[in-house]
Amino acid sequence: MHPAPPPFIRIENLTLGYDRHPAVHHLSGDIPAGALVAVIGPNGAGKSTLLKGLAGELRPIGGRIVMPGLPPGALAYLPQRGEIDHSFPVSVFDVVAMGLWREVGAFGGLSRTQRQRVRDALAAVGMSGFEARPIGSLSGGQLQRARFARLMLQDAPLILLDEPFAAIDSRTVDDLVQLILGWHREGRTVLTVVHDLEQVRRHFPTCLLLSREPVAFGPTAQVLTPDMLARARRLSEAFDDDAPECHIELPPTAVSPTDEHAHHHNHASHRH
Ligand SMILES: Nc1ncnc2c1ncn2[C@@H]1O[C@H](COP(=O)(O)OP(=O)(O)OP(=O)(O)O)[C@@H](O)[C@H]1O
């Protein structure tokens, strides 16, 4: 018998938030290497906050995230809103080439091979011929393709995508899903915030259902049950950002390696 491989990401009683107000709390669990995880939950459930925490953009208020097998900085993160200033006169090629900054450095020039890799990444997202176009002239779907091309060049073992399909045409969504499935086949670990549950059922083997705290984490078919979704909704409705404290009691659930912390507690942002 082989011992179980170490987790790629270990989350230990994690609390993340803003100005010491928890947005996600009591999150614990292991994510194995090569997992393809959909992060789902109601609006304001803390999905983006979790990705920011994993990306290192938000420091935990409590608990910790450990990624034993990940070299420092070896993750690629696609935030929800475009971080690209559309009015900035920069070409699609240059924006995508930023994906190589770790190997090129801030002021380095690109080698011939690196320039070819940029063109290959653009071809892989169906954007050949757009190299010289100003980034601000792209449609929403084209811009998202370019952002995926940049991400590909980062060649990271861990990829975090925050609502990559929001406000994107269905053909582009299909193409982006195929790229994600390709990264999964290559053995990369991918966490994606997704709103469309059909999309999740069809393509994502593992699911984390969040509602400020973990509701369920495991195989998608066991997480996406009417019970679990109703539970997530109830938790989200019981939440009030301005309320002084919290006493939410959860019954234990069948699938949930992550909710062993369900109990009475006091946090400075729940109501009853
Ligand atoms: N920069 C911030 N400063 C203060 N509070 C924030 C900030 N960003 C998010 N929040 C709050 O944290 C909570 C969780 O937000 P988050 O964006 O993580 O939720 P989400 O699940 O991604 O929601 P959605 O599906 O609507 O994008 C919300 O109450 C939100 O208002």
Automatic annotation (TrEMBL):
Record keywords: ATP-binding, Cell membrane, Membrane, Nucleotide-binding, Transport
Residue span(s) of domain ABC transporter: 9-237
Comp. bias (Basic residues): 263-272
GO molecular function terms listed in the Swiss-Prot or TrEMBL record: ATP binding; ATP hydrolysis activity
CDD domains: ABC_Metallic_Cations
Coiled-coil intervals, chain numbering: none
Family under the similarity heading: Belongs to the ABC transporter superfamily.
SUPFAM superfamilies (UniProt xref): P-loop containing nucleoside triphosphate hydrolases
UniProt keyword Transport, yes or no: yes
Keyword Glycoprotein: no
PANTHER family, per database record: IRON TRANSPORT SYSTEM ATP-BINDING PROTEIN HI_0361-RELATED (PTHR42734:SF5), METAL TRANSPORT SYSTEM ATP-BINDING PROTEIN TM_0124-RELATED (PTHR42734)
Gene3D superfamilies for this protein: P-loop containing nucleotide triphosphate hydrolases
Taxonomic superkingdom: Bacteria
Span list, region Disordered: 244-272
Full protein name: ABC transporter
Pfam families: ABC_tran
Organism, scientific name: Thauera linaloolentis (strain DSM 12138 / JCM 21573 / CCUG 41526 / CIP 105981 / IAM 15112 / NBRC 102519 / 47Lol)
